[in-house]
Write a structure and sequence with these properties.
heterodimer; A: 285 residues; mainly alpha; 13 helices; B: 254 residues; six-stranded mixed β-sheet; ABC_ATPase_HisP-typ (chain B)
C-alpha cells in the first residue's frame, strides 16, 4: 500500500478518504453459532413426541379463543381496578393526614406480602367465612351466589395489582418537581386539583413504562385464576388436555397466544408514551 | 387614610433550629414597588413565601388587603384556615418563581389560562383573549403554542409573569426572577417588570439586581439574618446606607 500523499507541511493528506467498514468476524461467528444451536433445538422439538397437527388444530379452537377473550377481559378490568386503587392509595400515602397514610401503607403491606394465588383462593372461598353477605335484617345474599370465579378473580387480581401500582404511581408523583406543586398552589389550586391537573399528567410520562410492565405481568397472572375455575386461556387449555391427554401441545397453544398478546401490547405502550410526552424536548424538536 | 395593602406584624418563622424570620414587621402600600435585598439565607425569600402561604408562619400575623392570612381568630385562639380558604386568599397574590415553574406539559397559552379556567371558573373564550393580550404585553404573542421546553429561560419567565397576572392579583411577588437566567436574558425580564411597575401594580421583588432596584423601586429593604436591617428610598439605602451591615453587603456585591 502506498502511503497517503503528504501535504506541504509533512502531514498526510486525509481529505476524501472514507472510514473503512470493519469485517466484525466475531459477530458473524457468534451469530452462526447461535443459529446452529437454535436449529438443533428446533430439530429436537420437531422430532420429539409432539403432534404439531394438534397444535395447529387447537390454536383456533373455539374454547381456546373464548379463553383468550376471557383472559383479556380479566386483564383489562383487573388492571383498571388496580390503576384506580393505585392512584387513590398513592395519593393517600402522600397526604399529610396520618390516618390515610397508615391505611395506605397497611394496604400495600398486606396485599404485597401474601401470594397472589393465596389471595385468589381466599376470595373464591369467602363463603366459608361469611355464608351470607348483606346488611343484617335488611338485605342479604348467599356468598356462594355472589362470589363467582369472575368476581373472585377480578377482586383478587385487581386489589393485588393496586398494591403494586400504588408504588409505581407514588414514584411517578415524587418524580415531579416540588416547584410544580408550588406553582399550582400559587394560582390558587387545592391539593387534589393540583394533583389531577398538574402533577399526575407529568407523572404519567414516568409511570407508563413500569405500568406497561405491570400490565404484561397481569395478562400472564390471569392464568392463576385457573385454580378458581375462571375460564381463561390456560384453564381452557387444561380442560382440553384433561380430555385428550395432549398436554404439551395445548400448553404450546396457550404459550403462543400469550406471546402474541404481549407482542401486540408493546407497540401500544409506545403510542401511549408518545401521547404523554407532550412538551418534552425529545418531541418538541 | 389609605391602609397598607400588606401589613406584616412581628412575624417569626423557624426551620427546625434555624430562625429564618425574627420578629419582622413591614408595610407595603398600594402601588408601591419594594425591592428586598440581602445575602442568601437572610430571610427575604421566606418572607415572600409566607405572604402567599407557601410557608406558614410560626408567630405574628400578615394581613393582606385587611384580611388576616392563613388563620382565623376565634375564642382567643388561632385556627388554621381550610385549604379552600387559603386557596381563595392566594388568588390576591401572584407569584413568580426563581426557576419559572411553568407547567411543562402545557403550552405557553395553556399555562396562562389554567388558573382562570380551572380555579376561577371563568369563561374559556374570555380567558383566552386575555391570555393572548397578556402574551402580547410580555412580547411573546408568537409563542402562544410553544411548550416551555421550546422557550429560552427569559421567555419562560415572561410567560410565568403573564401566568401570575392572569389571575388579576392585587400584589405581585417576585422571588429572584432573574437569578436562574443567562446574563443576556436578564434584561428582557426586567423590562417586563419595569413596564408592570409603570402600570401601578404593587410589587415585592426579591432581587440581586441593584440597578433595577435603584431605577424602579420606591423602597428598598435590606435584610440580614432573618431581620430587617434598614429600609428607605432606593437612593438612600443603596446610595448612602446608614447601617454598617448594609454598607458591608453593598460593597461585597458591587
Amino acid at each position: 500500500m502506498k502511503p497517503a500523499p503528504a501535504l506541504a507541511d509533512g502531514f498526510p493528506d486525509l481529505s476524501g478518504m472514507q472510514i473503512a467498514r470493519e469485517p466484525h468476524w466475531f459477530r458473524w461467528f457468534s451469530a452462526a453459532l447461535i443459529l446452529l444451536v437454535l436449529t438443533a433445538i428446533a430439530r429436537a422439538f420437531a422430532n420429539g413426541q409432539i403432534e404439531w397437527s394438534y397444535v395447529s388444530r387447537f390454536l383456533t379452537a373455539k374454547v381456546i379463543l373464548e379463553g383468550i377473550v376471557n383472559t383479556m377481559v380479566m386483564a383489562v378490568l383487573a388492571m383498571a381496578l388496580g390503576i384506580v386503587l393505585g392512584i387513590v392509595v398513592a395519593v393517600m400515602r402522600l397526604s399529610p393526614n396520618p390516618v390515610l397514610k397508615t391505611v395506605a401503607a397497611g394496604y400495600t403491606w398486606l396485599f404485597r406480602g401474601t401470594p397472589l394465588i393465596l389471595q385468589l383462593l381466599l376470595w373464591f372461598n369467602l363463603a366459608l367465612v361469611f355464608p351470607t353477605i348483606g346488611i343484617p335484617g335488611l338485605w342479604s345474599v348467599r356468598a356462594v351466589d355472589v362470589m363467582t370465579p369472575f368476581l373472585a378473580a377480578l377482586l383478587g387480581l385487581g386489589i393485588n395489582q393496586g398494591a403494586y401500582t400504588s408504588e409505581v404511581m407514588r414514584a411517578g408523583m415524587l418524580s415531579v418537581d416540588i416547584g410544580q406543586y408550588e406553582a399550582a398552589q400559587a394560582i390558587g389550586m387545592g391539593r387534589l386539583r393540583a394533583l389531577r391537573r398538574i402533577v399526575l399528567p407529568q407523572a404519567m410520562r414516568v409511570v407508563i413504562p413500569p405500568l406497561g410492565n405491570e400490565f404484561i405481568g397481569m395478562v400472564k397472572a390471569t392464568s392463576l385464576a385457573s385454580v378458581i375455575q375462571y375460564p381463561e386461556l390456560l384453564h381452557n387449555a387444561e380442560n382440553i388436555y384433561y380430555a385428550n391427554s395432549r398436554v404439551i401441545e395445548l400448553l404450546i397453544v396457550a404459550g403462543l397466544w400469550y406471546l402474541l398478546v404481549v407482542s401486540i401490547l408493546t407497540p401500544l405502550q409506545m403510542l401511549l408514551e408518545r401521547r404523554f410526552a407532550r412538551g418534552t424536548l425529545r418531541l418538541a424538536r | 387614610m389609605t391602609r397598607p395593602l400588606v401589613a406584616i406584624r412581628s412575624v417569626a418563622k423557624n426551620f427546625g433550629e434555624f430562625q429564618a424570620l425574627k420578629n419582622v414587621s413591614l408595610d407595603v402600600w398600594p402601588g408601591e414597588v419594594m425591592c428586598l435585598i440581602g445575602a442568601s439565607g437572610s430571610g427575604k425569600t421566606t418572607l415572600l413565601r409566607c405572604i402567599n402561604q407557601l410557608a406558614t408562619i410560626d408567630a405574628g400575623g400578615i394581613w393582606l388587603d385587611g384580611e388576616l392570612l392563613g388563620v382565623r381568630e376565634q375564642g382567643g385562639k388561632l385556627h388554621r384556615l381550610s385549604e379552600r380558604e387559603i386557596g381563595r386568599q392566594r388568588l390576591k397574590t401572584g407569584m413568580v418563581f426563581q426557576r419559572f415553574n411553568l407547567f411543562p406539559h402545557k403550552t405557553a397559552l395553556e399555562n396562562i389560562t389554567e388558573g382562570p379556567t380551572q380555579v376561577q371558573w371563568r369563561k374559556p373564550d374570555e380567558v383566552r383573549a386575555e391570555a393572548i393580550e397578556l402574551l402580547r404585553r410580555v412580547g411573546l404573542a408568537a409563542k402562544a403554542n410553544s411548550y416551555p421546553a421550546q422557550l429560552s429561560g427569559g421567555q419562560q419567565q415572561r410567560v410565568a409573569i403573564a401566568r401570575a397576572l392572569a389571575m388579576k392579583p392585587m400584589l405581585m411577588l417576585f422571588d429572584e426572577p432573574t437569578s436562574a437566567l443567562d446574563p443576556e436574558l436578564v434584561g428582557e425580564v426586567l423590562a417586563v417588570m419595569k413596564e408592570l411597575a409603570r402600570t401601578g401594580m404593587t410589587m415585592m421583588v426579591v432581587t440581586h439586581e441593584l440597578g433595577f432596584a435603584r431605577e424602579v423601586a420606591d423602597r428598598v429593604v435590606y435584610m440580614d439574618q432573618g431581620a430587617i436591617v434598614e429600609q428607605g428610598r432606593a437612593s438612600d439605602v443603596l446610595g448612602a446606607p446608614r447601617e454598617q451591615r448594609t454598607r458591608a453587603f453593598l460593597s461585597a456585591v458591587i
